[in-house]
Fold UDP-N-acetylglucosamine transferase subunit ALG14.
Amino acid sequence: MDIGMGVNESHLNSSMDASAIVGIGLLVYTFYVFRLVRSLPWLRLHNASSRSNSFTKNGPLQIFVFLGSGGHTGEMLRILENYAPTLMNNGCTIHVGYSDNASKLKFESFAKSSIDKKSGSIHAVKYYEFGKAREVNASIFESIGTVIATLYTSLLHVLTIRASLRSKPHLILLNGPGTCCILALWFKIWEILDFTTSDSSNMVYVESLARINTLSLTGKILYYLSDMFVVQWPQLSEKYPRAKSFGVLT
């Protein structure tokens, strides 16, 4: 009889342990589903403006920008120059991602000249080199290799950048090529996984001025990941409900 009671008690304890594990699992699952809905703009059940907006916190602004190459870099520099009094004041820190040295040199020149003209004030500039997700005219198989390499190297940089932006007023400003998709993906993944803060990524994507009637491939992806999606032609904002148009920015 004692043996039978011992077996029943052991079975009961095992059942309770299993129930506790299932309960904890469901709790964690529910928590991350909530964070997923809260983090991805197109899944949100409420207006983005109701979120705790880490762009409006007091203190110097931390900005991350990515310089693609060629025209993408030129457009990003014009955005920063046109809005320098708003973005680059009060001792801000700019984290600059780049994929070619020419873009880095252009930003260094810009930081020395244009910002002063617009009364900007930069405390520090930090540079991060990213590989290109896809080279021009690369085949599908070649692109797979570069995408995998970019996924790995960009993850390490994103972790460093996010640590600098965390719990501070910050803005992630993107406008460029396919690498922006990988960066946006990592920023959103860590926004979902980091349960120690409720900060939004504050990710803004500005579509190229050249896109008048249709979005670029990067734009079609970032439309669902960015916290604010900006186009420069009104017909695009009419076609895409989440898009906002403030006129020509670049």
Remarks:
- The two ends are 84 Å apart (CA to CA).
- The CA atoms of residues 230 and 244 lie 5 Å apart.
